């Protein structure tokens, strides 16, 4: 990689030929995705034919990419923050945003169905305009606004000024400290958990559709951990994005989190391993489903424990926020 003649097609071919070397370890796979996406960014700038960006910027990824928790197949989730709005800057980053989204799709990262891409002006703004938008989302408090706020808090700079994302996360932290209702709205937005353990303790798999007989690992297991830890991170003002790094930071910030978060960290690491060991999905959605028929009796027992512990963590965080406790319990 890295030749002057590099194209989206070259990158796609290289990606498909080499990704299998990273299938045994989550960090290696996510570093691989980062490398591919950065190359797409560089090609996108070359494709514009306008030279380097006209002002400092941050191109960030969010979602599972922002949390460094991507699977083998991943869609797009990204945005741009640039230093200052001007006619020249706005046009440049508009064209760049469109080209990045196109390039990522060409390389094998499908367009985001929720349109969380820097081709969408909602996710492409100057620093001042970003603060205005974040403030609007927090003040409005609608389901969509709160959802967008959560998406932004998972942002991680892939190339450019790291400070821009950190500064905006600090802005969210300071606002929610003075307005506790924001944290409660964030909690309400993720309060529902998909129940996959039946009254007799059995795992309840999908009853129909293309994933029939499989367990929805994303909504029953991953998201209870991801959402709860993100809420605590916003509450404590942590800038980290990965769930594991957030857990480490939270334990350091408040020792009272230690017992439940240590268990949660171990469980989440195991979840990542399960996703790799039993990966069968040929689509982005398919990577979220686990074929329980391939699990041993002990593995089924472990999955059930991890799911139950995730619900306990989720309830712990919800209770903490409901009480308005700013110092743990």
**Alpha-carbon Rg, integer:** 20 Å
**How would a crystallographer describe the biggest sheet?**
4 strands, mixed
Which spans have pLDDT < 50 for at least 5 consecutive residues?
none
Helical percentage: 55-70%
> What characteristic shape results from the CA principal axes?
globular
Overall pLDDT confidence: 91
Order of helices and strands: HHEHEHEHHEHHEHHHEH
> How would you classify the helix and strand content by structural class?
alpha+beta
Strand content: 5-15%
Q: Count of helices?
A: 12
Q: Could you tell me how far the N terminus lies from the C terminus, measured between alpha carbons in angstroms?
A: 51 Å
| Spatial strand sequence of the major β-sheet | 3-2-1-4
Give the strand tally: 6
Can you describe what's shown?
The model has no long low-confidence stretch (mean pLDDT 91). The protein has 329 residues and is of the alpha+beta class. The protein has twelve helices and six strands. A four-stranded mixed sheet has the order 3-2-1-4, sandwiched between helices. The radius of gyration is 20 Å and the shape is globular. The relative contact order is 0.10. Helix 1 (8-18) crosses helix 4. It has helices spanning 8-18, 26-48, 63-66, 87-107, 127-140, 143-153, 162-178, 181-189, 217-236, 243-253, 258-277, 297-322; strands at residues 57-61, 78-82, 124-126, 156-160, 214-216, 289-291.
């Amino acid at each position: 990689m890295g030749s002057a003649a590099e194209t989206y097609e070259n990158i796609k071919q290289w990606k498909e030929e080499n990704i299998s070397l990273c299938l045994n370890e989550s960090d290696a796979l996510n570093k691989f995705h980062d490398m591919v996406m950065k190359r797409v960014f560089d090609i996108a700038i070359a494709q514009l034919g306008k030279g380097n960006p006209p002002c400092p910027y941050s191109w960030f990824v969010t979602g599972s990419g922002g949390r460094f928790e991507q699977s083998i197949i991943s869609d797009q989730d990204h945005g741009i923050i640039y230093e200052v709005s001007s006619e020249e800057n706005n046009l440049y980053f508009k064209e760049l945003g469109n080209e990045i989204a196109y390039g990522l799709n060409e390389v094998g990262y499908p367009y985001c169905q929720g349109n969380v891409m820097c081709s969408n002006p909602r996710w492409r703004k100057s620093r001042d305009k970003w603060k205005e938008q974040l403030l609007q989302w927090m003040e409005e408090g609608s389901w969509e606004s709160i959802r967008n706020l959560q998406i932004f808090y998972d942002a991680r700079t892939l190339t450019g000024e790291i400070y821009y994302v950190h500064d905006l996360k600090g802005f969210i932290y300071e606002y929610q400290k003075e307005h506790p209702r924001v944290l409660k709205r964030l909690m309400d937005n993720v309060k529902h958990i998909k129940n996959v353990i039946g009254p007799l303790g059995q795992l309840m798999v999908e009853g129909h559709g293309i994933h029939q007989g499989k367990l929805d690992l994303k909504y029953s297991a991953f998201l209870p951990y991801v959402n709860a830890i993100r809420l605590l991170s916003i509450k404590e003002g942590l800038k980290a994005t990965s769930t594991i790094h957030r857990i480490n930071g939270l334990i350091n910030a408040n020792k009272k989190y230690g017992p439940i978060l240590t268990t949660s960290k171990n469980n989440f690491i195991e979840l990542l391993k399960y996703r790799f060991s039993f990966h069968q999905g040929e689509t982005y959605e398919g990577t979220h489903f686990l074929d329980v028929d391939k699990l041993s009796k002990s593995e089924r027992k472990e999955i059930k424990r991890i799911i139950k512990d995730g619900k306990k963590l989720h309830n712990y965080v919800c209770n903490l926020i409901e009480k308005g406790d700013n110092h743990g319990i």
